[in-house]
UniProtKB/TrEMBL annotation:
<dbReference type="InterPro" id="IPR003439">
    <property type="entry name" value="ABC_transporter-like_ATP-bd"/>
</dbReference>
<dbReference type="InterPro" id="IPR005292">
    <property type="entry name" value="MRP"/>
</dbReference>
<feature type="transmembrane region" description="Helical">
    <location>
        <begin position="309"/>
        <end position="329"/>
    </location>
</feature>
<dbReference type="Pfam" id="PF00664">
    <property type="entry name" value="ABC_membrane"/>
</dbReference>
<feature type="transmembrane region" description="Helical">
    <location>
        <begin position="904"/>
        <end position="921"/>
    </location>
</feature>
<feature type="domain" description="ABC transporter">
    <location>
        <begin position="349"/>
        <end position="566"/>
    </location>
</feature>
<dbReference type="InterPro" id="IPR003593">
    <property type="entry name" value="AAA+_ATPase"/>
</dbReference>
<keyword id="KW-0067">ATP-binding</keyword>
<dbReference type="InterPro" id="IPR011527">
    <property type="entry name" value="ABC1_TM_dom"/>
</dbReference>
<keyword id="KW-0812">Transmembrane</keyword>
<keyword id="KW-1278">Translocase</keyword>
<keyword id="KW-0813">Transport</keyword>
<dbReference type="GO" id="GO:0016324">
    <property type="term" value="C:apical plasma membrane"/>
</dbReference>
<dbReference type="GO" id="GO:0016887">
    <property type="term" value="F:ATP hydrolysis activity"/>
</dbReference>
<feature type="transmembrane region" description="Helical">
    <location>
        <begin position="182"/>
        <end position="201"/>
    </location>
</feature>
<feature type="transmembrane region" description="Helical">
    <location>
        <begin position="715"/>
        <end position="737"/>
    </location>
</feature>
<comment type="similarity">
    <text>Belongs to the ABC transporter superfamily. ABCC family. Conjugate transporter (TC 3.A.1.208) subfamily.</text>
</comment>
Length: 1236
């Protein structure tokens, strides 16, 4: 941790130094990392150096060994000495190597951690400009992908000097053996370098393309999952359109991937050929230069084992360079983000002649604002949609750029945004928000915020866990509890039932509320509250036009009194008028600044949209509310935990998973690949046997001239076998590339196909991050990691078998040792793989909380900053990262454990090969001995790799397991089935509920207890009831988001449970509560299937009062909507939803509190359009605000899932029952109805 801190400071220092050079400082990251970690680096370098030097001792010993065997007259002890020395050198080498690895891997882990911490820290202070540049998805990516890249490169950073060193040493020793002819081999190597360089740059460009498509695909996936989470996608039955979009991006991505795979198979081909070509060139030149030069066994095999040492650095360098190239991309991204602008946050409330803009260069939204607010006052901010009310809030929070003027704020802030932000934690934690728990104060706040009745409904009381998607839990409670000095309240009274609004104003905000001694700034549309505030600030188009008390402003006949007169009509009927206007523009903007791309998107959306929770103070028990009154104690446990813990497979990966992957590849492919690789291995062994035979010529033609035909045959066959190897590897890799792309395609489309068909219940209990993870990390593994580890595994396996075969061929004695060695090997490997696999699983499971906490933070930035809780969140981030490191570190150590044991086995193989050669030296020719020992020297590494690869393959194949787990979840009913409704259905739009009962999940109580009613064609029905009475459940049932427990719903006498979901959902229209838009064009948002002509679309835009706006945009219908519709105001989004409904034109329309989020003007527009355009339809309106349904033909009053009254509004008022009481709260009387 200290290191982390140290690093931060250095980063900051570096940053300031470089600020001037460019728009963001660059190339400081690497030096900073070096300064922080230089001692570990130096230490590990030392170990690496020793190991490199020892590596060259073995070939020299081999040389002595071969000459010993040739010379039968020497004493046997010499041979035994060499065997023991071989063992000793190898052991020392192993120990040094493992020490080096241990240090490097721990270093990599530290670097990753430091980068993650730095990114998190930066995200808390980042300014809006910087935030606009990168979406949330990209920021989360910095933490996951880019930090990981650094981790991987740091592991092998020493190879940058070690590889060249090994190459130079090898050449020196080869020169001693073969003289100048080494230069021929060297020339071949040098030629390889530019070719590899070329391939590497090509590969990098392709990699960048792949990342682009990945980002694009994940962005859409996020939106889709999000759209499902808030049910929009399902209600509109738009899944197929989005599925097609994702599939087309995925198709492009796979094509690019295929190119990448082809490219890498070319480089593999060059690699495999390289050692063969090098030794061919060297030997050919050596024997060709003069007839004196004879290839003896000691020369040949010492050279071969030197060439083997050369293979590693030559293979590694290009890979390392490629990795470094990739890391430079990450480095740039990180430097750009970490070097971006910070916010200057110092905020008290006097604003002096300030102008504020969202971005540095943009036009200011608020112009020349001057405010002076005395402590302890209640100030209301009013104005039409888009006048800059929420922007003013953001400016006070320091979230906007002040282009001139200054703000001065004394004291601590509490902020209630329009779009609520909730953490995945218990209800109590969300209210306490890091403050200590004081029961009395807590209860006071709960009562004042009208949360009492709702807590009683929750199984766990205030300890109930709130999911990513929470009901409208009141944000106000968090603010009220925080005991700040200044409260910025962004229209918290809008979307709540009238009596709750009144209660809140009286008990919390107003002159006699909890906060009466604090400074309060309240954005509101509720005309009825204005007489009670101390001061009113009137905004018009970003300019403060008037300031004064209610009475003085009424008297002055300015903009304010006009505003009042316009709505004087509604004043009585509606003390809690609408919400959210500029909000949209700003808060939302601010809250999200294009950023909740990735999980946070999810989070933010689900939270925000669904909760709007600053809006009603009740934890709404709607929709999926998993929470009901407990029947008995144990049941309450079931209801409390909304989000299941992520499951983690344990034990061995089932063989069936491997088969599943092979099946996805195609059996033909799989077999072909294996055969090709096998043939390559045979050619390799053949080549070396040929060489050993060749060296025996030296004995045969001793002191005789070496015939040139013989020489040419030897060289020719040797070369041919080398090329054949390369060719087969090339073909094998090529077919593997095709196979793995095919597998990726199949696995992804199965996953996508299934996720879109999964019932809502799944999304209510699964955090979206978890689903995104399947599409991101796991699909990435299937795409890139599995094919590679599969290939390496096959090659390693064949390599080990080949080596053992050659040794047994040379010294048949060796077969005795194979069995015990193999047993030990098997047990070590089983033991390791099990541990390693489990640790890897723990790693990936403990990683998700880091990212989800991060995205949660990014989406709640304005709240965290307003409350000044950055420190607490930093701490929490450190704790989650440490949790993850607890499984990373043991994994690193377990790798070292394994390596030491395996290398010991490998060293024993060398020892026994040498030992048996000495024992039976009388019957052996020196060629074969050289061959078997040089092979044995190579086996150590191959053995180590084999286990490593087995384990990696198992670890990676878990991704297939995880993907298929989500491809096999139970689906909801079919989208289209055999009973299709008539073309024109529903023609009349009659609705009948017959004893309809429903529950959210099996095991929970009913939400609707036997609803029975008939709704005639073209009736207009208003549905009212206190929060949690089951109003929204009703719409969920109509669309079959939740299925009946018993009973039926008939539409025009067709039972809706008998037809396909899409047939049903396409024929109903809903204007949802939360206007959700998707990124894409405006046209796509209205008509994703391109079913309608442009004329139709312009017509509905006109009806929904958006025509002028859209016509004014440069691209018109092709205007790009930002993610979640951030670049439109909430009012405009709501109107777009209305346009969608008008476009569908079905006979049944459901309005879900659709006007809660717009100001009075927009509200009137929507109401009038609906009255006119949908007059021939059956309309169900779920209303929070009674005045909007006073003109319906009947009103249905729900309470606790039952219909308590249903009749015309006037009759209900006479009856003086439930409805009458609600109307009285809202100040509606019978006289008002006659006016309407």
């Amino acid at each position: 941790m200290e290191e982390k801190g140290k690093k931060e400071e250095e980063k900051k220092k570096k940053k300031d130094k470089k600020k001037e050079e460019e728009n963001y400082p660059n190339s400081w990251l690497i030096t900073t990392i070096y300064k922080t970690f230089k001692w570990i680096l130096i230490e590990s370098a030392l170990f690496k150096l020793l190991q490199d030097l020892l590596a060259f001792a073995s070939p020299q010993l081999l040389k002595l060994m071969v000459s010993f065997i040739q010379d039968k007259s020497r004493y046997a002890w010499e041979g035994y000495l060499y065997a023991v020395l071989l063992l000793a050198v190898a052991l020392l080498q192993s120990l040094f190597l493992q020490q080096y690895f241990q240090r490097c891997f721990v270093l990599g882990m530290k670097v990753r951690t430091a980068i993650m911490a730095a990114v998190y820290k930066k995200a808390l202070v980042v300014s809006n400009d910087t935030r606009k540049e990168s979406t949330v998805g990209e920021t989360v990516n910095l933490m996951s992908a880019d930090a990981q890249r650094f981790n991987e490169v740091t592991n092998f950073i020493h190879l940058l000097w070690s590889c060249p060193l090994q190459i130079i040493l090898a050449i020196v020793f080869l020169w001693l053996e073969l003289g100048p002819s080494v230069l021929a081999g060297l020339a071949v190597m040098v030629l390889m370098v530019p070719i590899n360089g070329l391939l590497a740059t090509k590969a990098r460009n392709i990699q960048v393309k792949i990342m682009k498509f990945k980002d694009k695909r994940l962005k859409i996936m996020n939106e889709v999952l999000n759209g499902i989470k808030v049910r929009i996608l399902k209600l509109y039955a738009w899944e197929p359109s989005f599925q097609a979009q994702v599939e087309s991006i995925r198709g492009q991505e796979l094509n690019v991937m295929k190119n990448f795979a082809y490219l890498s198979s070319v480089s593999t081909f060059i690699f495999t050929c390289a050692p063969a070509l090098v030794s061919l060139a060297t030997f050919a030149v050596f024997v060709g230069v003069s007839s004196e030069n004879v290839l003896t066994a000691e020369k040949a095999f010492t050279s071969i084992s030197l060439f083997n040492i050369l293979r590693f650095p030559l293979a590694m360098l290009p890979m390392l360079i490629a990795a470094i190239v990739q890391t430079t991309v990450s480095k740039r991204r990180l430097e750009k983000f970490l070097g971006g602008e910070d916010l200057d946050s110092d905020t008290a409330i006097s604003v002096c002649d300030g102008s504020f803009a969202w971005e540095k260069e943009a036009e200011p939204l608020l112009k020349d604002v001057s405010l002076d607010i005395k402590p302890g006052r209640l100030v209301a901010v009013v104005g039409a949609v888009g006048s800059g009310k929420s922007s003013l809030m953001s400016a006070l929070l320091g979230e906007m750029h002040s282009t001139k003027g200054f703000i001065n704020i004394q004291g601590s802030l509490a902020f209630v945004p329009q779009q609520a932000w909730i953490q995945n934690a218990t209800l109590r934690d969300n209210i306490l928000f890091g403050s200590p728990h004081e029961e009395r104060r807590f209860q006071e706040v709960i009562q004042a915020c009208a949360l009492g009745p709702d807590l009683e409904l929750l199984a766990g009381g205030d300890l109930t866990e709130i999911g990513e998607k929470v009901r409208k839990l009141h944000h106000l409670a968090r603010a009220a509890y925080s005991q700040a000095d200044i409260y910025l309240l962004d229209d918290p009274l809008s979307a709540v039932d009238s009596h709750v609004g009144k209660h809140l104003f009286d008990k919390v905000i107003g002159p006699s509320g909890l906060l009466k001694d604090k400074t309060r700034i309240l954005v509101t549309h509720g005309v009825s509250f204005l007489p009670f505030v101390d001061e009113i600030v009137v905004l018009q188009d970003g300019v403060v036009t008037e300031i004064g008390s209610y009475n003085s402003l009424r008297a002055s006949r300015g903009a304010f009194s006009e505003f009042l007169d316009t709505y004087a009509k509604e004043e009585d009927t509606q003390p809690d008028s609408p919400l959210e206007d500029t909000v949209s523009v700003t808060l939302k903007r601010e809250n999200s600044i294009r950023r909740h791309r990735s999980k946070s998107l999810l989070l933010q959306k689900s939270l925000c949209l669904l909760c709007l929770f600053s809006s009603s103070f009740s934890v709404r028990l709607r929709k999926n509310s998993s929470i009901r009154k407990p029947e008995n104690a144990d049941e309450s446990k079931k209801g409390q935990r909304l989000i299941e813990k992520e499951t983690m497979e344990t034990g061995q990966v089932k063989f069936s998973v491997f088969l599943q992957y092979l099946r996805a590849m195609g059996w033909g492919y799989a077999v072909t690949v294996f055969l090709l690789y096998f043939t390559q291995n045979v050619a390799f062994i053949g080549q070396n046997l040929w060489l050993s035979d060749w060296t025996n010529d030296a004995v045969e033609y001793y002191n005789r001239t070496y015939p040139s035909w013989k020489r040419d045959t030897r060289v020719g066959v040797f070369g041919a076998l080398g090329v054949v190897q390369g060719l087969f590897v090339f073909l094998g890799t090529l077919s593997l590339a095709n196979a793995s792309v095919a597998a990726s395609r199949i696995l992804h489309s199965r996953l996508l196909n299934n996720i879109l068909r999964v019932p809502m219940l799944f999304f209510d209990t699964t955090p979206i991050g978890r689903v995104v993870n399947r599409f991101a990390k796991d699909i990435f593994t299937v795409d890139e990691a599995i094919p590679q580890s599969f290939r390496s595994w096959v090659l390693c396996l064949l390599g080990v078998l080949g080596t053992l075969f050659v040794i047994c061929l040379a010294t048949p004695f060796f077969t005795i040792v194979i069995v015990p060695l193999a047993l030990v090997y098997y047990f070590v490997q089983r033991f390791y793989v099990a541990t390693s696999r489990q640790l890897r699983r723990l790693d990936s499971v403990s990683r998700s909380p880091i990212y989800s906490h991060f995205s949660e933070t990014v989406s709640g930035l304005s709240v965290i900053r307003a409350y000044g809780h950055q420190e607490r969140f930093l701490k929490h981030n450190e704790i989650t990262i440490d949790e993850n490191l607890k499984s990373v570190y043991p994994w690193i150590v377990s790798n070292r454990w394994l390596a030491i044991r395996l290398e010991f086995l490998g060293n024993l193989v060398v020892f026994f090969a040498a030992l048996f050669a000495v024992i039976s030296r009388d019957s052996l020719d020196s060629g074969l001995v050289g061959l078997s020992i040089s092979y044995a020297l190579n086996v150590t590494q191959t053995l180590n790799w084999l286990v490593r690869m087995t384990s990696e393959l198992e670890t990676n194949i878990v991704a297939v397991e995880r993907v298929s787990e989500y491809s096999e979840i139970e689906n909801e009913a079919q989208w289209v089935n055999n009973t299709r409704p008539p073309e024109k259905w529903p023609e009349e739009g009659r609705l009948q509920f017959k004893n309809y009962k429903v529950r959210y999940r099996p095991g929970l109580d009913l939400v609707l207890h036997g609803i029975t009613c008939d709704i005639g064609s073209t009736e207009k029905i208003g549905i009212v009831g206190r929060t949690g009475a089951g109003k929204s459940s009703l719409t969920n049932c109509l669309f079959r988001i939740i299925e009946a427990a018993e009973g039926h719903i008939l539409i025009d006498d067709i039972d809706i449970s008998t037809i396909g979901l899409h047939d049903l959902r396409n024929r109903l229209t809903i204007i949802p509560q939360d206007p959700v838009l998707f990124s894409g064009t405006l046209r796509m948002n209205l008509d994703p299937f391109d079913k309608f002509s442009d004329e139709d679309i312009w017509r509905v835009l006109e009806l929904s009062h958006l025509k002028d706006y859209v016509a004014g945009l440069q691209e018109g219908l092709q205007h790009e909507v930002a993610e979640g519709g951030e670049n439109l105001s909430v009012g405009q989004r709501q109107l777009l939803c209305l346009a969608r409904a008008l476009l569908r034109k079905s006979r049944i329309l459901i309005l879900d509190e659709a006007t809660a989020a717009v100001d009075l003007e927009t509200d009137n527009l929507i109401q009038n359009t609906i009255r006119k355009e949908f007059s021939h339809c059956t309309v169900l309106t779920i209303a929070h605000r009674l005045h909007s349904i006073m003109d319906s033909s009947r009103v249905m009053v729900l309470d606790a899932g039952k219909i308590v009254e249903i009749d015309s509004p006037s009759n209900l008022l006479k009856k003086q029952g439930h409805f009458y009481a609600m109307a009285k709260d809202a100040g509606i009387t019978i006289e008002d109805i006659t006016v309407l």
